Amino acid sequence: MSFDELMQHAYEIQQQATLKAFTQHGVRPATPDGLPQPAPRHNELETRRSIEGQFADIPDLFRAFAEMPDPQAFEPRKSDLNRAIEELSSGWASDDPFNDRHYSANRDLDKMIDATNHIVRWTGRAAMEFRGNFIAPFRSIVANQFIATVILRSALEAEQEIWVRARNDIDKIAHDTLVALDRMDDCGKNSWVMTFTVLSSVAAVSGAALAPFSGGASLSLTAVAAGSQVAAAGVPDDPPKVNFQGETAIAVIASMRDAIGLLRGYIDEQERKIANALNHSYQEIMQDRDSFVAKRPALADATAADVTGPLFMGYSR
To answer: Phi and psi at residue 231, in whole multiples of 5°?
Structure first.
């Protein structure tokens, strides 16, 4: 089976369940218009309508899943973040601590360190603040921005993984339901096991230690990653398995509804993991913004009248 055919399978489930229930209740399917109508049986029409009503919601149960995000749609955003990570890879901070990736150093970042040698004769307020607010903390700020961007990219990969696994799980639910309906009349217990792989899609990983600015308290950002890319304590080795059974069409569909409800809840649970981690990191960054963004340049307050004065551009000795 294929996820692309999910709605087709949903209608097949609805049709098979309806026909199976008709048989179990001794009800004949409706005769198409234009053909001779058989003699009516007692309560047959009412029973038929009742059975059809019990399965009328099946397509809608699957429709929301058919409209889930396409995992491939995340690739352009991941590429954008990867380019940003490459730009921020300094050599002194070039390793992805969550996915065991290494990035080559961007040598353009060395130019800021070399800038010190070119402004030794520059004096004035702007010169002092440029050294203190830009050159001195440059390494730490770039390293922290590198880690923050890696955390965003890892969260995006985890989000992508949710939808990869959710698609597989809902497709498996549809397949298991069709099989259960098909073998409902066989001898023996009609039961099956569903493995919810979506529960292993998001891994909680250790916080990333960052370099605080101006000797502040150490920082740690919370991260998540795709479960397929990292082995962490937050990811179970084996996704949970749930047993389902049904000896009648109504019971089989009831089990299917239970499985769909569980899957919906498990998706929400994984989404909350990502949201909680990103919210925590956001709060940490906002509480110590100077560790991620350089301060406003003194020259930003200058005017044409005073920009060349001692408070701003100063002098060259």
So the answer is: -100, 115
